[in-house]
Specification:
7-stranded mixed beta sheet, 9 strands, alpha/beta, 221 residues, 24% strand, 8 helices, Rossmann fold
Amino acid sequence: MKESADSTQVVLKYRVKEWFPDISAPIHDQLRLMYDEMLKSNKALSLISSKTIAHADLIHFSDSIMGCRAIYGSHPNLTEIFDIGSGNGFPGLVFALLYPKVVVKLVESDSKRCEYLKHLVSILRLANVQILNQTVETLPANSVKVAMARGFANISKSILLGRKFQPSGGIFYHFKSEEWGIEVAQIPTQLCSIWVPSLAAEYTLPVGGVKFAVVKTVKIG
């Protein structure tokens, strides 16, 4: 299959089923449908960078699957999680597909992207997803016990915003590149007195040896 991007013919490959054979066939079908819909809507909504289209199955889907598994592995009794700045649905929709018993709340301020997310939720038949068309700043105080974000902001900005909507003991997971340590080192001292960062998981994508990580911050103040 080929798709035009920036006047250049890009050969697209979808290898998620090959990389994750333990995922059930019905979920693989839903992931593939999500992939196809993302490509259809990308030009109008700029869901992913044109530079990543050819490797979307690796950079976006595989990263989301591996990161979501890491998060759920540390919360086997998790019942609700917020995807902050969900935008293109990564990792929130992937999490919802993998763990249908967990309520996933997608927080997105852009109304057009929310319509796209609603469309995906409908065609994927996800009963465990709620879409919140609002800014992060308008989330009620202490309303988010567990949150995650991918491509939203650096860790410092994310936890600065999280001071209001997360209670003491709240957990915020951040999907990051292999340079996650730099972001942790840049957290201001005053935020370190409120949040404790740690590495939740570090993993290598199925192709190319690229490393990604999930950083966990726990609110203690």
